[in-house]
Design brief:
About 75% of the residues lie in helices and about 0% in strands. It is mainly alpha-helical and about 500 residues long.
């Protein structure tokens, strides 16, 4: 092992050690499952903002988005980013405060399934069970994508087998998550968002230098048909511009709809100590998201110029393109001690982006299994100590399943995340909005919307989209619409909610 490799390894090991230490520190603050899953609703505005966005962006920001921009230019990456920026802002603006207030009012609900069940007074536990099952179905592959990103990182860096590298990464994430719970995940997310930001800045500055300057970057981008256009996508195989049609733009913008149904993000709204501080959180979060996504796309454009300049080899396909930042860091590490430290920070940033999402997803999925399914649906009465043990065991079990799914090193992080994102957005987005803002919604409508949204994601993805043409749009958009229609139709065709439910709705 070379001195350079050892240096990179030391920087990354130091980062991992800090994460575990944070987990150990916050483990002492978890007195019950409310603390473990929601931090006792004690988050400050800065931690709330950055934790929400760090858990949102994941490895998709540092690997997936630059990879898409590298291969095809600005259209897909740009419209996706615009949709996400709008969705982020609206989620903070219209959902955050009311959800924080309503979940507290509705029997102090600490999970989304519990909120839906309490909101509609569902004594059958059908809402609770279906919501919990849906969360597990879509979170397991989402978590797996994070583990896969870590595995790719270490395998590319240190020329080690992918599988053990991925497993070791998963073990670290599980370790600090099971120790510290929600508070540890939130605090590590704050640290990770800072490291991600530093990584993005370093990559941009060095990437421009390696490509031969801004003029070289601009000249390369302009030489490829449709590469810088928002209305065309660049086809590298034929070196031609392919029209990026209005329907495709609409479906890509639909990424923003996903925010309304993301459990790991919505939990941050529920965990803030003071709902009035959400305005500060919204401003911080929105600015960071816009800037970070712009930089990530720009990195993809810079990466193409680096290939043209001969600094890095041609990256073919999404699997290779998603390693762009890793390869840039390795190139940087050839320039001495300080460069090795900076490269180590970049690589730690990739780890951070992955871990900040995986820890939140593990907690959200585990809370659904242990709290909603085992404790509430199946009626198991557990002591505080037993509940905490169950919560931690559930995190481990879900992680093991995620590791099994992530064993294929050729999977695309961007594509896995896009499917899981659609699943959550369509399953929970419409029902979240209707639950918060339409008092006529009833339990039957909520259940119908949840099932229709989740099922339609699979139907559209695997049965309708393959037909091509106008049908090949992002599955989130049609599934979201179908879910909303189902909620309205079934709610109006069945009995209205009780006076008690309406009065609670109006008091929030």
């Amino acid at each position: 092992m070379t001195g350079k490799t050892i240096g990179l390894l030391i920087v990354m090991a130091a980062y991992l050690a800090v994460m575990i230490i944070v987990g150990a520190i916050y483990s002492k603050r978890n007195k019950d499952v409310t603390d473990f899953y929601l931090g006792g609703r004690k988050l400050g505005p800065i931690v709330t903002a950055m934790s929400a966005e760090a858990s949102d962006m994941s490895s998709w920001l540092l690997m997936g988005l630059p990879g898409v921009a590298y291969l095809s230019g600005c259209a897909e990456a740009g419209w996706t980013a615009i949709g996400l920026a709008i969705g982020t802002y609206l989620n903070w603006l219209i959902v955050a405060k009311r959800l924080r207030r309503y979940t507290h009012k509705a029997n102090n609900s600490i999970t989304l399934p519990a909120f839906f069940s309490n909101r509609y007074r569902d004594k059958s536990h059908a809402l609770l069970a279906i919501a919990a099952i849906m969360i597990v179905i879509f979170f397991v592959p989402y978590t797996a994508s994070g583990f896969a990103a870590c595995g790719k990182l270490f395998a590319t860096l240190f020329h080690v087998p992918y599988l053990p590298a991925m497993i070791i990464s998963a073990v670290v994430i599980v370790l600090y998550t099971t120790l510290g719970g929600f508070l540890a995940a939130s605090m590590t997310d704050l640290i990770q968002s800072i490291i991600m930001t530093i990584a993005l800045v370093i990559v941009v500055l060095y990437g421009i230098y390696a490509a031969g300057g801004l003029d070289a970057v601009a000249a390369n981008a302009n030489s490829m048909d449709g590469y810088l256009s928002m209305m065309f996508s660049h086809d590298a195989a034929s070196n031609t511009a392919v029209p990026y049609k209005g329907l495709t733009i609409a479906s890509t913008l639909a990424w923003g709809l996903g925010y309304f149904g993301m459990p790991h993000i919505l939990l941050r709204f529920m965990g803030i100590e003071d709902e009035n501080k959400l305005t500060t959180s919204r401003r911080i979060a929105s600015v960071w998201v816009v800037i970070s996504m712009f930089i990530a796309i720009f990195i993809g454009i810079i990466g193409s110029a680096m290939t043209k300049a001969g600094a890095i080899e041609v990256l073919e396909g999404s699997s290779q393109a998603e390693t762009l930042i890793v390869r840039t860091a390795m190139l940087l590490s050839n320039h001495g001690f300080l460069a090795i430290v900076l490269a180590g920070l970049i690589l730690a940033g990739i780890l951070a982006s992955t871990m900040s999402t995986s820890d939140s997803q593990l907690l959200a999925a585990a809370s659904c299994v242990s709290e909603n399914l085992i404790t509430e649906c199946f009626g198991m009465k557990l002591s505080k100590k037993a509940s905490m043990l169950m919560a931690r065991l559930t995190v481990v079990v879900i992680a093991v399943i995620g590791v099994f799914i992530a064993k294929n090193p050729d999977s695309s992080v961007f594509r896995i995340v896009s499917f899981a994102w659609a699943g959550f957005g369509a399953t929970f987005g419409p029902i979240m909005l209707f639950s918060l803002f339409w008092k006529r919604t009833n339990r039957n409508g909520a259940l119908a919307g949840m099932i229709v949204g989740g099922v339609m994601v699979f139907v559209w993805k695997y049965l309708i989209a393959p037909l091509g043409g106008i049908w090949s749009i992002y599955e989130l958009l049609p599934a979201f619409i179908c879910s909303a229609v189902a909620i309205v139709a079934v709610s109006l065709l069945t009995a209205p909610p009780s006076k008690e439910i309406v009065e609670e709705f109006e008091s929030v």
